[in-house]
Specification:
Blueprint lengths: L3 H8 L14 H23 L5 E5 L6 E9 L2 E4 L1
Antiparallel strand pairs: 1-2, 2-3
Amino acid sequence: MVDESTRKTLASIPPLQTRAGPRDKELWVKRLKEEYQSLIKYVSNNKEADLDWFRLESNKEGTKWFGKCWYIHNLLKIRI
């Protein structure tokens, strides 16, 4: 069902272990740290492979995320 390149990408990212939401206070902080670690690893892998295609940020609590993404079409960078 999943192709080999997707499996390779997922294997290189640390998995999330903590099941928590923003209402879980202390567990949420642990979950948020795991999410940041995974995102940092994913972005660094993309930059090494020259596949940098998004920027992502969150508020201090980690409850609202925002960012930019783009793609290249006919040698033009298109932002979404």
